[in-house]
Amino acid sequence: MRTSLDHHATQVIAFDWDGTVVNSVPFKLAQNQAIAREFGNELTHDEVRREWNEASGFANLMYRLTGSHDMDAIMEVVDRDYNNPLYAKRAFDFAKPALQQLRADGYRLAVVTNATREILEMDARMLNFDLPRDFDFTQCADEGEFRKPHARTFEQLCQHFGITAAELLYVGDEMKDYEATVNGGNQFVGVTTGMTTAEEFTAQNTLHIRTIAELPEYLKRRKVYGTI
Predict the structure, then answer these.
(1) Cα–Cα distance, 43 to 48 (Å, whole number)
(2) pLDDT tens digits for 141-161?
(3) Of the candidates 70, 64, 82, 69, the residue with the CA atom closest to the CA atom of residue 27
(4) Which of 195, 172, 196, 168 lies closest to 184, judged by CA?
(5) Which of 98-121 are b and which e, b meaning 16 or more Cβ less than 10 Å from the residue's Cβ?
(6) How far, in Å, CA of 95 to CA of 190, rounded?
(7) pTM over the 0.85 mark
(8) Integer angstrom CA distances of residue 92 from 159, 188, 198
(9) Which residue, 53, 20, 10, 12, is CA-closest to 172?
(10) Pair (101, 111) in one structural domain
(11) What is the tally of structural domains in the chain?
(12) Could you say which of 87, 118, 134 is where a domain stops?
């Protein structure tokens, strides 16, 4: 798939967190599968993944998984299993080297996530990320007026760095990430380490790579050839 040779120069690369920088999706799916089972729904991981991708917000996801509107009962199960080590996030072994290489290549780095600030900072401590050292900017769901997939999600980031929308590349694992970027005039590259498969990205004609480990080389190829 071609990109234009006069493509806007990328000044800032922003990342989704879950499924992109940290390995959380298999464990999140297992936890949601267990929640569904508590309410009598036996779902496969792929069925849970599709429900996740189609849901609009946490409450809607829980209803789709459980068939129940009783959020008190649902949250009892969620809270009970919150710290279960079976569902704990893991570090991608390639993430930190990839971030270091991108910084060495002159890019400024950011995180824009639909996780809360509390969860992002807890994940960072657990997985040995130093957010102020590893990223120049972080934005969470409980900060700012807009969140993905809203087209204005990245306005705050662009103002912080003093860049145009087209100078931002966002890297994420969901079509919701793509929707936010394309509607906001930003660049997007998908990764297949999270909620969306390569086949699903291809079906939507969306640029994608396997992991963020491939991103430095992809950007170098794009500069030279204008292709992926």
Answers:
(1) 6
(2) 989 888 888 999 999 999 999
(3) 82
(4) 168
(5) bbeebeeeebbbbbbbbbeeebbe
(6) 15
(7) yes
(8) 30, 21, 19
(9) 20
(10) yes
(11) 2
(12) 87
